[in-house]
Amino acid sequence: MELLVLPTPINNPQFVHKPQTLTLNPSKFPTSTHAFDASISKESLPTMPDIITASKSQNLDLQLHKLGPFFRITAQNSSTGGELGRAEGMIRFWSDGKILHLDTIKLRRETLAMERSIFGIALFIGAVAFRYGFDCGCTKAELLAINDSEVYHSKLVRFYRRLGFKEVYEVTGSSVGDLGHMLVWGGVGTRMDADVEQLLFKWGAKFKSAKR
C-alpha cells in the first residue's frame, strides 16, 4: 500500500458509476455484523455519521463509492470542490472471515497548502474505510507498506504504525513463499495488519468529540 502525493486527478474506468455520497442519515449505512470485543464499549466506537460530522468541521467532504467488493473513498475540499485524496481497496472473503484489504491511499498536492497535516486527512479517509469494513463484518485490515526506496519505506511503516497497524511479514521476493504476496500486492514491502475494531476504538475520541 502506497501513500502518494499526486499532482493531477486520476480517472479509473473501473469505478465509472454513480457514487454513494455519505450523509448523516443513519439509514444510509449498513448495519454492523461485527462481533464486538467484550472489553470495548459499542458506544466508544465512532459511527459513520460521527466521522462525517467531524470531517465537515475540517472542511472535508467524504464520499464512498462501491462496486461489488471494491470500494473507493474520496475526500474533497468543501470550499473548492477539489479532490484532496482517496483510498482504494476491497472486502475480501477468507476462510476465517472477511478482511478489509487496503490497496492505496493517495493524497494531492493541495493538501500541502492546507492548515492540517497529511496524516490528519489520511486518518479521515482511513476512518471511513475502517468503519465501512467494520459494518461489513471485517475483523482485520491488511495492507502492504511498499518498499520502493529504503527511506520512503521506513516512513510508510512509521505512518501505518501510528495509525495502529503492526508488521506481520517482510515480502522481499527472495523466497517462494513471497510469490503469493507479490501477486496480490504487486510488489515487495512490509505486510501489516490491524484489528478493525481496535482501530476505531483508538481514534474514536477524535471523531466523537465533534458531536459535543
Q: What features would you describe in this structure?
A:
- The protein is an alpha+beta fold.
- The chain contains five helices and nine strands, in the order E-E-H-E-E-E-E-H-E-H-E-H-E-H.
- Helix 1 runs antiparallel to helix 2.
- It starts with a strand and ends with a helix.
Poorly predicted regions are 5-33
The rounded distance between the terminal residues' Cα atoms is 35 Å
Q: How does the helix and strand content classify structurally?
A: alpha+beta
As a percent range, the share of helical residues equals 25-40%
Structural topology:
Layout (H helix, E strand, L loop, with lengths): L1 E5 L13 E2 L26 H10 L2 E8 L2 E8 L5 E12 L2 E12 L9 H18 L4 E7 L3 H14 L2 E6 L6 H8 L3 E7 H13 L4
Parallel strand pairs: 1-6, 6-7
Antiparallel strand pairs: 2-3, 3-4, 4-5, 5-6, 7-9, 8-9
Main attributes?
212 residues; alpha+beta; nine-stranded mixed sheet; 5 helices; 9 strands; globular
